[in-house]
Prior knowledge:
Layout: H1 2-18, E1 23-30, E2 34-36, E3 41-44, E4 54-62, E5 70-78, E6 84-92, E7 109-119, E8 128-133, E9 146-148, E10 150-159
Antiparallel strand pairs: 1-10, 2-9, 3-8, 4-7, 4-10, 5-6, 5-8
Amino acid sequence: MKIKNNFLFLLFVLALVSCDKKSVFDEYKSVNNSWHKDSIVSFKLPQLDKAKKYDLFVNIRNNNDYPYNNLFLIVSLEQPDKKVLVDTLEYQMANPDGSLMGDGFSDVKLSKLVYKPNQTFDLKGDYTVKIQHANRQKGKIIGVQDLKGVTDVGFRIELK
């Protein structure tokens, strides 16, 4: 009976993975439940078809230790010609009652945050994305040193 259950579970996982046909790139890096303000999470992107359009996402896994309603990120996209596009972004992470937004059945939630929709990659060569948090406590100038409750930072590219 155990072999049958394992087989059914494997089929279920394969079905879930095969349904994700839009995904071109999906990678995560662990920050061990506390993301230091100087820790920059970096992703080297695969070679992408310059004739196609893509939607880009920052993925954040966080848990109930996350103390804020929102998340501020500095995201940079370094192009092959060394030009760097930098965006400072704000995302809502919690509902008005304080419960975390995102997908998940336990206290760990996955938030798929839109970064750049309809993006093209016109230049041939390596693209790199770097992500850093920029949270601050209300009324404070110095940023939050260790952002508690964030377990993983990811980057995802989907075919438009």
